[in-house]
Amino acid sequence: MDDSYQAWQEVLAEEFFGRQHAGHPTLFYVDDDVEQELRHGYGIEEPLAQCVGKFLRLGTAEPYSALEDYRWRKRQQDRDGVPAFLPLLACSVMAASRMVHDRNHRATAYHARFSELLTGHEKQLGSHHYEPVSRMWQVLASWQHSQKGARGLCTIPAPADLPSNRSMIGFAQSQALLSGADRSFMPKFFRSLREHGTTWPLPGETLLAQIEIRGMEQHFSKGFRNALQEEEFRPFLAKLIGNYAASWDGSDELVPTGVTRAELLVRLDAGRLSWVARLRSAEQKKRIELKDGVVLEQLGDTAYYEVTGLPAPSADTLTRGIRRDGDNLVLSRPSSSVLVLARDDVLGVWAGTDGFRPGEAHVVLAAPTAQRDVQRLLDKAATTGRSADTSKLAWVPQGWSLHKPVTFDDAVTLRRSLQEVQGAVGLLQPPAQFKLRLEGGLKLAPSLDSHLYLRGGEPQVVLPDATEGTGALLVDGKERPELRKAVAAGRPVPLAVLRLEPGRHTVSYAGVEIDFATADQAVVEPKMTKVCGFIVVDGTASESPSLLVEQTLPTGVTGAHCTGATARGAAAVMELCRRDADEVLFAAADGRLWTLQAPEQPDWWTERLPGTPAPLRFEADFHGIGGWLLERRSGRWKGRPVNPGTPKPKSAGNPRAWARAVLNAQQASVEPSWAAYVQAAKELDR
Q1: CA nearest to 184, candidates 97, 255, 257, 254
Q2: Is 164 a residue whose pLDDT tops 90?
Q3: Which end of the chain is more exposed for a tag (fewer CB within 10 A), N or C?
Q4: CA 53 and chain centroid, separation
Q5: What is residue 652's predicted lDDT score, i.e. its pLDDT?
Q6: pLDDT tens sequence across 623-633
Q7: Which residues does the annotated region (Disordered) include (predicted)?
Q8: pTM to 2 decimal places
Q9: Hey, is 663 helix, strand or coil?
Q10: Is the bond leading into 599 cis (omega within 30 degrees of zero)?
């Protein structure tokens, strides 16, 4: 891939899935105007569609194979990074944003627009080519869910939520439904409904009906209005706007992007309701002070915080909602007439949850306005807990009903019942599942092998939402009758009941296979995922180390030989870098640019030094090279020189990437030496 494709990938990753989106619903919205803003704002010369179109293998059965290969190469270097096919998916959203009636196409003619955008011809790419793009959307959604909200709350629909005739293109269409202007208007719309004392949050279908009843369609974009008229796509539009309503905290605007949102959750412990906050952020402070005397104190090294200074959870505080602001942080809980608690693995007690979890126990509390909806749902789908608990417990909010323990053993029935009942419980759908995966289990030495489990403590298998009725679940190539009941009910499938022998095992379903191992003790060699060394070209090793990829690994210099590749006589300079920085870069004077990653803490650290806190900084050595070390924390860059010298960025490396990094961090220092770097970057950027 050339520099422009990598630049687009980096820009899209930062704009739509950067850490500033933590705790926020995120739409991957890209239309022609957004594309131009990004291109000019980041100084990318090549238009997005033209950049992607160069790498299509037209005339073949797999036109996107080059982009898929690139994604896998990047994944080997950074397994947790944003999947590297964002430019192609952004083009698929741009095509969806152009779906209107014109002289050449009907509004539903998606593939013609997608092909025309990327190739200039409407028939080069057809619907039979699009399945890999559909899979990429599911991979992106699965990755975003795996980040647990730290890269934004996923708004990509589960495959089961899409109408059958949109089973592939619906992912791109879903992201083009709500423009930025639509999202800015929604708090005003929500507030107009709340002023009439309506139970909140309202289900999405009711919100859409209110838009039509009040004649408010003209306040929304044309794409939204078109989707509103489509009966087959309307259910997903309802779910999307319903999720935004459920995350609205009652203020005049959605929590602005770039401001961290801390979620306020209810905790039930020792017969008492209290507040606990969950902070989805890369930077975890020990203590946070907000307005009106509200203080957050971190619980151990978790993402949870003890909350003091707020009135205790009650009928009043639960139905009104709460919001407190601080320095670049908002603590909030939307008003709600239904409270669902489940066992939290980190806290070890009952805590608020976003949706029902099939097969697990829940405590359900309902305000008087929601008790009818809750009872209807439980009558239709609950295995236990249908009858309200009539005992007078002091911690139950006044006037609210209590059901416990509520379990749903059949996920299929639960989803169908939630769609039928809607009302106050309509937003409590089970979390979307996008791929076959393992969950739970007793892991042995996860630092050595993340899929090694203690014999008898095997994990559960979670099936994707889109694979209902697509085949049998196979364990080691065989169908196991003991598992059929759980598969049919859509619940996580427990493998421990199979009493598997120690060794490696495979689980396959609907053409996807994952493997794991069981043992009585940990006896496994560590896996090598990243190799650092010196690239060798024409018998000469490079002066500086880098990660060796598949092509350079066989000839690269690694291990004990590394010191031989360093320039002789070059004095080494050691600098201390912060581990809690969001990003650490080194911009060399000759135009090369490195991203410095904090080394992982070795296993022996906690064994030999129990109770010793992790170091705040890590060391970085620079041999015979000068430049500026840049660190970004809380959106601000700071820099310090390392034998900076005179910047000559055209001599080596990737000058455009170097210039982009320097200009992004131009406020990092006021030293004259740094000003020279910024000036050199501006000259390159012209």
Answers
A1: 254
A2: no
A3: C
A4: 27
A5: 65
A6: 878 899 999 98
A7: 636-655
A8: 0.66
A9: helix
A10: no
